[in-house]
Amino acid sequence: MEGQFITHQDIARKLNLNADHVRDRLTHRPGFPAAYTFGGARRWKEDDIEEWIEQQRQAKPARRA
Predict the structure, then answer these.
(1) Domain residues of the chain, as ranges?
(2) Is the pTM of this model over 0.70?
(3) What is the pLDDT along the chain (65 residues), one digit of tens a residue?
(4) Strand segments (E) across 1-65
(5) Which of 15, 37, 36 is nearest to 26 (CA)?
(6) 31, 37, 46, 55: which is deepest, by most CB within 10 A?
């Protein structure tokens, strides 16, 4: 297993969202990367989160001006 593991707080900073929102809602959405649990603490692979972010960007339809 390679790459860094990050917390829900780290994910919140990447997305400029509230950490509680990330922990309580975003991480439970279908398609969100699965967490790894270490001693009761949940962590996500940073590469998985980056890939998920890119998928979300590509899935959004373009807005018309």
Answers:
(1) 5-58
(2) yes
(3) 568 999 999 999 999 999 999 999 999 999 999 999 999 999 999 999 999 999 998 877 766 66
(4) 5-6, 36-38, 41-45
(5) 15
(6) 46
